[in-house]
Design brief:
heterodimer, A: 5 helices, rod-shaped, B: 390 residues, mainly alpha, 2 domains, 11 helices, 1% strand
């Protein structure tokens, strides 16, 4: 069976003419009736134009938001570190003074007083426990996506 | 006492069904149902009880492999005992005929309970021992501690040398300049990996230091115990109580998803290709092909714009994570330099001092009269006591 190739546009044109005859309204020419496609294209083009126009501003806004966040995290961590070091320093200083005083009492033969003094003061050293430090650290690290925990 | 087949189905069926599920509290049901089925049907339905027992044995064997799940094992054990005690009560509510042989029933259930107590208790003790043995490490000798000292002193330097993600990396800045999203994505992925590796390394270094300090404390505790009899001769006994050993740190990090709208991109490009193909083959309009191509181009440009913003957001997250990790590293450096390493050094000095004083005073044949000598040991023991307690 041999038949001539049928043009797609010819079929469409024929359908338009039949439609015009039935409805009595003029049909739009081919290519102009894809309203949904045109509307989609226009809205996408507008969105693109808006995105291009606000690109620099948006990137700067995102960047500055994280700059602030990074500065906040950095400062909070510094505070935790300083608190930790201050605790160590205080302990070391108290320890040194305590043992100096005790040694002095022993040198002078005041053994019982030295013993009592030692017993009372040895319990007053207060190194920050790891749990407390980790808790402070996790508060400082909020927003960083990281957490520490004590096993 | 009757043995209706319904009892077997009602009690035996669910016990077998639940026995297959991987939940330890279902084991309670297996036992309760098994015990009830046995008691209501006497020896005629011993098979049900046997099957329940096999299921329990199978699960028990599986349980032994889960050494970490001790809390669950204990709960299960307690639940089993409660269940077995509650079984006769439930049974008496259901079947008044049981009053005919209550002594027999109680004997059977008590026997079962005893078996459970023995078996469950033994199993839990075995699990406890196994766990303890797994975690137990030999106390390092003084020579080993001295050999470790150098490694411990090098830890802060190693921590300082660790690198994290740097947003001012010239490659990354150049990629941003050229809006090369693929390159930015690769560099951000690499930055995220560096962050995680660095954090893991820093954690390992700190945990090694903490572990070494714990070893020194344990050796110090042993030395203190040896000093105790000598101190007692001076009337200055000071108990050595070691606490808070074996603490380590672990980190959890949010998983950053750097997902791209690749599928959309492929769909748009594919849609345009198909439209062009159809137009070329005569089965589609050329206007449609042009529209699809323009649409695909616009969507690709939109995706590119959205991608840039998404990548900027991810860069911020990776940078925030890097800042926190740098903060942790600084904290770890402070902890090792100011506390862990000095404590380790001090522990070695105290071990030596305590051992020397203990030997001197122990070797004295008569009761010592020089109180000052005794106080030297007492003070050293006091310092050691503080050092081994956190």
């Amino acid at each position: 069976m041999d038949s001539a190739p049928v043009e797609y546009s010819d079929i469409l044109d024929a359908a338009r003419r039949r439609g015009e005859a039935v409805t009595g309204y003029a049909a739009l020419p081919a290519g102009l009736d894809k309203f949904a496609t045109y509307a989609g294209l226009i809205s996408s083009a507008l969105e693109l134009a808006k995105l291009v126009a606000t690109e620099e501003r948006d990137l700067q806004a995102i960047g500055s938001h994280y700059d602030i966040e990074v500065r906040r995290i950095s400062a909070a961590f510094r505070e935790v570190e300083m608190a930790m070091l201050a605790g160590f320093e205080q302990d070391a200083s108290l320890r040194e003074r305590t043992f100096d005083a005790i040694n002095l009492l022993i040198e002078k033969g005041q053994f019982e007083i030295a013993s009592e003094f030692h017993r009372r003061l040895i319990d007053s050293f207060s190194r920050p426990p790891l749990e407390m430090l980790v808790e402070l650290r996790n508060q400082a690290g909020t927003g960083s996506g990281t957490r520490l925990r004590v096993l | 006492m009757t043995a209706p087949p319904v009892t077997m189905v009602v009690f035996g069926g669910p016990s077998l069904f639940f026995g297959r599920l991987d939940r330890s509290h279902f084991l309670l049901l297996v036992f309760v149902f098994g015990a009830v089925a046995y008691a209501t049907s006497a020896a005629g339905n011993f098979v049900i009880f046997l099957i329940c027992g096999l299921v329990q044995a199978y699960r028990g064997a599986r349980l032994e492999t889960r050494r970490g799940d001790l809390a669950s094992a204990r709960m299960m054990h307690a639940a089993l005992i409660c269940g077995c005690i509650g079984a006769p009560w439930l049974l008496s509510l259901r079947d008044p005929d049981l009053a005919e042989g209550p002594a027999q029933l109680v004997a059977v259930l008590m026997g079962l309970l005893l078996l459970l107590v023995l078996r469950g208790g033994l199993l839990i003790r075995v699990l406890d021992w196994a766990e303890r043995d797994l975690n137990k490490k030999p106390v390092p000798s003084i020579e080993e501690l001295q050999a470790q000292q150098e490694k411990l002193h090098a830890a802060p330097k190693q921590l300082r040398e660790l690198a994290t993600f740097d947003a001012s990396d010239p490659d990354l800045l150049d990629a941003w300049q050229r809006e090369d999203t693929a390159r930015i994505e690769t560099l951000l992925r690499s930055g995220d990996t560096i962050n995680r590796q660095t954090w893991a390394t820093a954690g390992t270094l700190l945990n090694d230091c903490l572990e070494a300090r714990d070893g020194a404390r344990q050796r110090l505790t042993i030395t203190m115990k040896e000093a105790e009899p000598v101190l007692r001769r001076f009337g200055l006994a000071d108990a050595a109580e070691a606490t808070a050993f074996g603490k380590k740190l672990a980190g959890d990090a949010k998983v950053l998803t750097i997902d791209a709208p690749w599928s959309q991109r492929v769909n748009y490009a594919g849609g345009a290709g198909q439209a062009i193909g159809r137009a070329a083959a005569g089965s589609g309009s050329w206007q449609g092909a042009i529209l699809a191509t323009i649409f695909a181009g616009v969507m690709l440009a939109i995706n590119h714009q959205k991608r840039l913003r998404q990548l900027k957001e991810i860069e911020g997250q990776v940078t925030a994570m890097a800042t926190a990790i740098r903060g942790d590293i600084q904290m770890f450096i402070g902890m090792t330099e100011e506390e862990v390493v000095p404590q380790y050094d001090q522990a070695l000095v105290l071990i030596d001092r305590l051992a020397r004083l203990t030997t001197q005073l122990r070797d004295a044949e008569t009761v010592p009269t020089d109180k000052k000598q005794g106080y030297e040991l007492f003070l050293a023991a006091g310092e050691a006591r503080k050092l081994i307690a956190e």
